[in-house]
Write a structure and sequence with these properties.
By secondary structure, the chain is α/β, with parallel strands linked by helices. Helices cover about 45% and strands about 20% of the residues.
């Protein structure tokens, strides 16, 4: 009982600070006896958009999209559990279900019953899990180079992918996990602007070990990628380097999708080509 009382007291004390934040109202939602940090921009009466960042990052990596979205929507960007200014509990399983429930908790705290969900990378399986759970009504969804970890149909390819994931999981579970993370990110960040890359590297070096190892362990959980079909309009923005298998997966799971593929971006189009990404998203939300 005491942790819940302390949690409630902290949320109440933190609330007045939100009104004075210059870059969005900073708030905390109570969730499973710990706090999830999020920020809010735009009119409270406007339709809601919830932004979900990728693995090891935080809500600040949507900074190029927020001004454009806040013109017409109430924008909510959260730090997922174990990330950013959210709590880093050591006694939880960092599954896609945990991250999805955090999205639901933030929406509830913000008084939102339905929203557009926009996710980068790991944000895709988080949104996919929100839809599977059915606790928050999703009006539309946007996947920005979303990570799809559904097992390939081809047995040989499936075995090769399983071995690659197992090797990476072993590295992330070991003492040199930050070095493994840095090498992992290097493979898809050559086009990221220098200032953004520096910030990204800082987040990687600050990443909590339990969160990193446990999250990657649960990326490919069978319950996340079991066959599903959702009647939700989806905009999928992908780099050419990431598009393998995307078309077929979207067709099977999201028949109302629009797939856009660019050959001049890497895994972070929202950082590399923000104006182009913003136009696609704002047009989709009209």
């Amino acid at each position: 009982m005491l942790p819940r009382l302390l949690l409630a007291l902290f949320v109440l004390l933190a609330a007045p600070v939100a009104a004075f934040a210059k870059d969005g109202q900073s708030r905390f939602a109570g969730f499973d006896d710990f706090l999830v940090h999020y920020k809010v921009w735009g009119k409270e009466t406007a339709p809601a958009v919830i932004l979900i960042h990728g693995f090891t990052l935080d809500q600040s990596f949507w900074r190029n999209q927020i001004p454009a979205l806040a013109k017409t929507h109430r924008v909510i960007a959260l730090d997922s559990p174990g990330h950013g200014d959210s709590a880093r509990p050591q006694d939880v399983t960092y599954s896609m279900s945990l991250y999805a429930r955090a999205v639901e908790a933030v929406a509830k705290d913000a008084g939102v019953s339905h929203a557009v969900l926009i996710g980068h990378s790991m944000g895709l399986p988080v949104i996919h899990t929100v839809l599977r759970r059915g606790q928050l009504k999703v009006d539309k969804a946007v996947f920005v180079d979303g990570a799809i970890m559904a097992p390939p149909a081809d047995p040989k390819q499936r075995a090769e992918e399983a071995k690659m994931l197992a090797d990476l999981q072993a590295g992330l579970a070991g003492p040199d996990y930050k070095l493994v993370l840095e090498q992992f990110f290097k493979s898809f960040t050559p086009k990221v602007p220098a200032a953004d890359l520096k910030l990204m590297q800082a987040r990687i070096r600050d990443a909590d070990h339990h969160m990193v190892a446990d999250t990657f362990k649960h990326f490919a959980d069978a319950d996340v990628w079991a066959p599903a079909r959702f009647d939700v309009p989806v905009l999928a923005l992908y780099a050419k380097m990431s598009e393998a298998g995307v078309k077929d997966w979207l067709k099977a799971n999201y028949p109302k999708h629009k797939l856009v593929v660019w050959d001049d971006v890497d895994h972070f189009p929202q950082l590399e080509q923000p104006q182009r990404v913003n136009k696609e998203i704002t047009d989709f939300l009209k």
